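hey all, quick one before standup. I had two proteins in the batch that finished overnight and I want to keep them in one place so we stop losing track of which output belongs to which input. First protein below, input sequence then structure tokens straight from the run.
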Amino acid sequence: MKFVIVLSALLAVALAAGGDPKDATVVRYDNDNIGVDGYKFGVETSDGKKHDESGQLKNVGSEQEGIAVQGSFSYVGDDGQTYSVSYVADENGFQPQGAHIPVAP
């Protein structure tokens, strides 16, 4: 009886892991507000990956014209843990934040 319980638990964990990433399918795709002044999108796949991002054109017509981007993504690592990263990318560069990312002193 213990064998059946352990086997069932292992099977449940294996199924929850999502299997081979090559077999993943898109379960959500949002493609909103894509234009000259900015964009916004979101995607989620059956293997647990998620990515949401938006960007806006800043300082239009000036020497400092550029795009400011903010977003987040998450995925399930090989260890079964979900890793999440939020980020900003602008005139100050790419600035990621996440519980697993070391912070400079």
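OK second protein, same deal, sequence then tokens:
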Amino acid sequence: MAGTRGSTQGRTGNAPDDLITTVGGLATFVQNMSQEWREYRHQNLNQPQMQDNAEEIARRRLKDFRNFQPPTFEGGDNPQAAARWLQMIEHIFERMVCREAQKADYASYQLIGEALTWLTSARALLRAQNVDLTWAVFRRVFLDKYFPKAMRRMKHTELLSLRQDNMTVNEYIAKFGQLMEYANFDRNIYDEEWQVEKYESGLHPEIRKLMLTTTNRTLPELINQSQQTEEIINEARNLSKQPMQSQGGSKVGRFFRKITGMNRGKGPQLQAWTGNCKKNIAPGQSSTGR
């Protein structure tokens, strides 16, 4: 009995050491497994998670792009429409601070019909040449297809030689704006000062002589003045065909008073106005009767 108790007491006395050893080994095992699990997740799960985040960001950016309601383009033979579409797309990119790597993809989403068919062929050709479809490449091939340089040069020449001639002022304005959009596209070499000088020089001499000369005019101001001057000339022509009547309240009368008031002591402009009036007097008819 004594031996049995001694043997039992011996085993009982070693139990705490065994327990400590077992618990310590378990703790080490758990710690090692935790470290291995972290390394496993880092090596095998971190990259897909980053890809998921990148895809989510790309989807959000595409949604932001479409929230601007970008226009679609279906191709055709209208270079002005192609230029305007490209300008609007680039304007959206500037507002949303779009990354260069995504611009070509976003613009591609807005091509439909014949333009989408063309892009598919263009992608295949570029891929065969080992050329990535960056935004710069997209822009170049798009313009070569729908707004080639030869046409831009032709429109530029047409702008430089533009004259109003037999066009109305509104027709001249429309033609001037169209050619400016063609010629100035992708270069922006014509500032507003140049546009003002070009617009004024192309006006009909009869309108240009009667326009009041001021400094630092903007293009909208000049356009508005030319429209008003044409109205005055047309009204004067209509009045010349009617019996003599009081013209003090007419546009002609107001314009006459305006230039006489503004040009006292400045004879040339007043003489230009009276000279034009005298030209309309029929032979044998006195200027006073007129």
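Flagging for whoever picks this up: The mean pLDDT is 75. The radius of gyration is 41 Å.
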